[in-house]
Amino acid sequence: MTYQNPNLAFNEAKAEAFAERFVGTLNEAALAIMTSLGHRAGLFDALGANPGLNSQVLSQKAAVNERYLREWLGVMVTAGVVDYDPRARSYTLPPEHAAFLTRSASPDNMAVTTQFISIAASIENELLERFRSGEGLCYHHFDRFHEVMAEDSAQLVVANLVSAILPVVPGLIQRLEDGIDVADFGCGRGLAMMALASVYPNSRFHGFDLCEDAFAQTAAEARTKGLENLHFEARDLSAAIELGRFDLVTAFDAVHDQADPKAFLRLVRQSMRPGGVFLMQDIGGSRDLEKNIANPFAPLLYTISSMHCTPVSIGQGGPGLGAMWGVETAEEYLAETGFASVETHRLPHDPINAYFIARI
Asked: GO molecular function: any one (predicted)?
């Protein structure tokens, strides 16, 4: 080793171990990008459904170019993700790996989440400029972030709403079956509201988001399905506006990157009927760095916070809370904006997020 700092003792073994670890980091980073590509191209799904195929047949099954496929398979084989039989020149995705990499594996499909790594890499130049200037970013800087967020949310939140999330609130499912008014603040693509509108036809569902483009596709699909109990509207949720009164308000991963999170929460409170419930899902980390060291998802969450949540908030003139604003801050904000009771829940299907039940 050539690097030496005269002010610090140098541990050769520690240096070697760190260098070895970073070889692994480079390989794992490469694997993450190729996993994202493989997910988008449907390669894991094709491998999972067709074990023991050579690259020619597999390329036909997946409708991709065989030459590019072989290079991708080289990554997957040398990374230990895909098994290779050199005699038959065939490839197999073990079922134990398919359980975390195919669309049929949802909500455990981690290939979905690897897409955030590619998105982060795509805005490196813009983020470097912001590191120097302190300015923020806007939603238009991100080509696929909301698309990926919607896919990630679909398997963590939407697919588990009825079975795992709504039951946290006693009696809520019965109320939805009987018929209540529901609003999702910061609805994004609006998949949660469309799912609930389909299951609970007696209730009325409203999705609000700053950008109409976010929910336009879902709104069109809802009209095609004849979901007359579902409506979407573009609104600035940090402003003092009148949205109506609701029995249930939800916000899924929508609060921490708002321009004014407390104004957002005050709007939620003033939009609730007596006896209403606010269901908020947000990152379940701590605001204290030392408490996040043992969190296996912490580096990923801080990366997403650095490249999207913090700069987007700053770009709107917000406080830049970041994704790791912490359950402590979330609970304090809910109390400060007038909620009389707050319960924080952790659910077995979701190791990343916390679920807050707040009442006025």
From this structure: methyltransferase activity
How many Cα atoms within 13 Å fall on the side-chain side of residue 5? 6
For 170, the token pair is: 């006693």
Torsion of CA 264, 266, 268, 274, to 10 degrees: 180
CATH number attached to the domain at 12-102: 1.10.10.10
Structure tokens at 317: 């003139």
The full DSSP string for 135-146 is ----GGG-SSHH
Instruction: Please tell me the predicted confidence (pLDDT) of residue 4.
Output: 66
Q: Could you tell me where in the chain the CATH 3.40.50.150 domains are found?
A: 119-359
- Break the chain down into helix, strand, coil percent, rounded to 5: 50, 15, 35
Return the bridge partners of 344, or none: 356
Instruction: State the CB neighbour count (10 A cutoff) for residue 140.
Output: 8
How does residue 256 score in pLDDT terms, banded at 50, 70 and 90? Answer: very high
Residue 160 CB contacts under 8 Å (≥ 6 apart), including other chains:
107, 347, 349, 350
Q: Which CATH architecture has domain 119-359?
A: 3-Layer(aba) Sandwich (3.40)
Report strand pairing: 272-283 vs 246-252: parallel
| Cα angle 92-349-24, degrees, rounded to a multiple of 5 | 50
Task: State the pTM of this model.
Answer: 0.87
How high is the mean pLDDT of the chain? 93
User: What stretch(es) of the chain map to CATH 1.10.10.10?
Assistant: 12-102
